[in-house]
Amino acid sequence: MIFTTRFAPSPTGPLHLGHAYSALLAHDLARASGGRFLLRIEDIDRARARPEWEAQIYEDLAWLGIDWPEPVMRQSGRLPVYHAVLQDLWERNAVFACHCTRRDIAEAANAPQEGATILGPDGIVYPGTCRGRRCGDGETAIPTQAALRLDMGAIAEGAAKAEPLGFHEAGCGPDGQSGWIGFTFEELCRDIGDVVLSRRDMGTSYHLSVVLDDAAQGITHVLRGQDLFEATKIHVVLQRLLGLPTPIYNHHKLIRDEAGRRLAKRDDARAISLYRSEGRTPQDIRKMVGL
Ligand code: GLU
Predict the structure, then answer these.
(1) Separation of 9 CA from ligand 1 center, angstroms?
(2) Which domains, and CATH codes, for the chain?
(3) Atom of ligand 1 at shortest range from CA of 7
(4) Which of 94, 149, 180, 267 could be a cystine partner for 89, CB 3.0 to 4.6 Å?
(5) Euclidean distance between CA atoms 19 and 16, whole angstroms
(6) What dihedral do alpha carbons 49, 122, 130, 78 form, nearest 10°?
(7) Is the entire prediction scored with pTM above 0.85?
(8) Counting atoms of ligand 1 from 1, which one is nearest the CA of 19?
(9) Measured from the CB, is residue 210 less than 6 Å from ligand 1?
């Protein structure tokens, strides 16, 4: 199997040093192993994605010396694929319809009988309010105007005797984890819970799209920041549920500012385009991120 990796930015702001690090690392690794580097535009958040940010991504990456095969996969063109998979999960009762607002969830999770509120990678672990709203006899269309959540407990039951869950970490997790990262459904139910697979306003979610697209593009190695380490566990469960292969994961360090905070899209001060306009070179950028 040929080494295949990708860089998958969302066009919702300028690329900063953290993105440059991720993209260069993936590109260098693909080159060193005679493999492929792909680019994917993760533009499912139609309210925040902008064509000008997408154009800027292409420009910045080319300036950094990165090249990629065309055509580039764009998630906005794959909504029918995501919908078909959601329909299947709905009919299999692996997801349920959820009408809760953030506020409903916070209130239910804080109710006295609920015990301590747990924060997972997507926020408060869902308290289960809508768990009964699932595909019923004769009514099989996915309800519109609702989010769809993965029923982690139901999946755990169905998978009790299956192989152990885990992935191979070729990089390093936030606490230094490497090698085989194993985890259990009990841990997932407790620490992650019923994650959203389809947002009301999107018809999909980051988790669902990233898993389907990595599989569709034949990605063998996923390079991504350590901030996504816990999210990777969700992706492994989805791969199991959908019969897709689990790639090797390589979580990398996060690029931080002088105060030790990780960079975010709003950190325009560290935007690649700004360094470019100041006359810095791609070699300078490599040095700044420690490559
Ligand atoms: N679009 C995601 C981001 O920009 C991609 C993360 C990933 O799965 O590698 O953070």
Answers:
(1) 6
(2) 1-77+255-291 (3.40.50.620), 78-253 (3.40.50.620)
(3) 9
(4) 94
(5) 5
(6) 40
(7) yes
(8) 4
(9) yes
The first and second tokens of residue 93, run together, are: 């009762």
Q: Which residues pair with 4 in a beta bridge?
A: 36
For the Cβ of 75 lying below 6 angstroms from any atom of ligand 1, the answer is no
> What is the per-residue DSSP string for 242-280?
HT----EEEEEPPPB-TTSPBP-TT-GGGBHHHHHHTT-
Q: Is the CB of 224 under 6 A from ligand 1?
A: yes
pLDDT tens per residue across all 291 residues of the chain: 899 999 999 999 999 999 999 999 999 999 999 999 999 999 999 999 999 999 999 999 999 999 999 999 999 999 999 999 999 999 999 999 999 999 999 999 888 777 778 889 999 999 999 999 999 866 688 988 899 999 999 998 887 667 789 999 999 999 999 999 999 999 999 999 999 999 999 999 999 999 999 999 999 999 999 999 999 999 999 999 999 999 999 999 999 888 888 877 666 778 999 999 999 999 999 999 999
How many Å lie between the centroid of ligand 1 and the Cα of residue 40? 10
- CA dist 268 and 278 (Å) reads 13
CA of 10 to the centre of ligand 1 (A): 7
DSSP letter string over 165-193? EEEEESS--TTS--EEEEE-HHHHHHHT-
